[in-house]
């Protein structure tokens, strides 16, 4: 099983060649199918490996095995715009049977590159506003997939921050200006901020240095906290953001569980692995002849509240018993 593979072997499996290799002969004469997987993270990130692993495992359970009846080529972009554009153009030119596209920037690069190759996305917040689909129920083109979350969850992040750190009156927000979902999340936070009595301070995300400088400047003021919404920056720069939050003693709410297992304080958001498994089912249906236009975009089915109790203690915070009782997981 994929979950039991050694990490180095798993990375080798996923890395693929620079150019598409010649497809080997499929068993019993069946045509070898091609799947491209374009990811916005890095190949050695444990959470990213779990996500793509769930996709591969889901395919295998549906009868698709890499090297037997399907060829899967994976490209990792580390959130770099040049890499995203390069691999989007490569996949569009090679025209695989279907492309798995992880996150909004990936879909945004693929959409103008091809209007014919089927695309199944994951980790996209608002595919209608981004112009990827006509509607959630009837996507209408060559793109469909699985939404990451709804913008209403942004208010929940503020609520949790005030619940675990009531003295917070200033909130730094890791904001992605070039992403529709980043703009939407920050807008939702702005709408909710007055009801929680907090001032929002956006932190730029062009690179790790800008994030570090922004957080350092923010912490010169009192009563600060931080929110790391869903997005490429929070994933690619997960470790430095968690370390900066600890160094500056900033109570921080994250959108993903992986940040809390890495030492962050608290997270609330959808399961980021399960959509990849669900995406395998859509890829299977497309490989069997269905069209993306007829497959409705699906919303998350589960949200998780995860608390790192050790981090709370290190920040001198008392976690309210009511919050602990609601947690899906408490890391001791």
Task: Explain briefly what this protein structure is.
This protein has helices spanning 7-15, 46-61, 81-94, 104-113, 153-164, 180-196, 208-218, 232-236, 238-247, 257-261, 274-287, 309-314, 321-326, and strands at residues 33-39, 70-76, 98-102, 119-124, 143-147, 170-174, 199-203, 224-228, 252-254, 266-270, 303-308, 329-331.
Write the layout of secondary structure elements.
Layout: H1 7-15, E1 33-39, H2 46-61, E2 70-76, H3 81-94, E3 98-102, H4 104-113, E4 119-124, E5 143-147, H5 153-164, E6 170-174, H6 180-196, E7 199-203, H7 208-218, E8 224-228, H8 232-236, H9 238-247, E9 252-254, H10 257-261, E10 266-270, H11 274-287, E11 303-308, H12 309-314, H13 321-326, E12 329-331
Parallel strand pairs: 1-2, 1-3, 3-4, 4-5, 6-7, 6-8, 8-9, 9-10, 11-12
Antiparallel strand pairs: 10-11
Question: What is the fold named in CATH at topology level of the largest domain?
Answer: Rossmann fold
Q: Considering the protein shown, what is the CATH homologous superfamily of the largest domain?
A: Response regulator
Return the average pLDDT rounded to an integer.
88
Instruction: Estimate the strand proportion.
Output: 15-25%
CATH class of the largest domain: Alpha Beta
The rough form would be described as: elongated
Second-tier CATH architecture of the largest domain: 3-Layer(aba) Sandwich
List the helices and strands in order. HEHEHEHEEHEHEHEHHEHEHEHHE
Please give the order of strands in the largest beta sheet. Answer: 7-6-8-9-10-11-12
Count of helix runs: 13
Secondary structure: number of strands: 12
Share of helix, binned? 40-55%
Number of spatially distinct domains: 2
Distance from N terminus to C terminus (CA atoms, Å) equals: 29 Å
What is the radius of gyration computed over CA atoms, rounded to a whole number of angstroms?
20 Å
The assigned structural class equals: alpha/beta
- The oligomeric state of the chains shown is single chain
């Amino acid at each position: 099983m994929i979950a039991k593979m050694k990490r180095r072997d798993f990375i080798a499996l996923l890395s693929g060649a620079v150019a598409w290799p010649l497809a080997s002969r499929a068993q019993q004469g069946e045509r070898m199918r091609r799947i491209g997987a374009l990811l916005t993270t890095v190949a050695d990130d444990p959470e990213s490996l779990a996500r793509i692993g769930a996709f591969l495992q889901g395919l295998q359970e549906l009868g698709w095995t890499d090297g037997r009846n399907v060829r899967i080529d994976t490209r990792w972009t580390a959130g770099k715009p040049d890499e995203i554009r390069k691999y989007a153009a490569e996949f569009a030119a090679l025209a695989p049977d279907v492309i798995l596209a992880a996150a909004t920037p990936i879909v945004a690069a693929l959409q103008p590159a091809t209007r014919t190759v089927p695309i199944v996305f994951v980790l996209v917040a608002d595919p209608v506003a981004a112009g990827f689909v006509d509607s959630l129920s009837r996507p209408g083109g060559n793109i469909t997939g699985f939404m990451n979350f709804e913008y209403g969850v942004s208010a929940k992040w503020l609520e949790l921050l005030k619940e675990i750190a009531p003295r917070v009156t200033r909130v730094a927000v890791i904001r992605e200006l070039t992403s529709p979902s980043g703009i939407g999340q920050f807008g939702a936070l702005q709408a909710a901020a007055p009801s929680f009595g907090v001032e929002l301070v956006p932190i730029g995300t062009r690179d790790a240095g800008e994030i570090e400088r922004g957080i350092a400047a923010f912490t010169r003021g009192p009563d600060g906290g931080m929110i790391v919404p869903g997005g490429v920056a929070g994933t690619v720069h997960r470790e430095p953001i968690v370390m900066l939050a600890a160094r500056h003693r900033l109570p921080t709410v994250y959108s993903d569980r992986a940040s809390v297992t890495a030492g962050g304080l608290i997270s609330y958001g959808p399961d980021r692995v399960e959509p990849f498994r669900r995406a395998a089912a859509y890829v299977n249906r497309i490989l069997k002849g269905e069209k993306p236009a007829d497959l409705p975009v699906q919303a998350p089915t589960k949200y998780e509240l995860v608390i790192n109790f050790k981090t709370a203690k290190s920040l001198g915070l008392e976690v309210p018993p009511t919050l602990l009782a609601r947690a899906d997981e408490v890391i001791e």
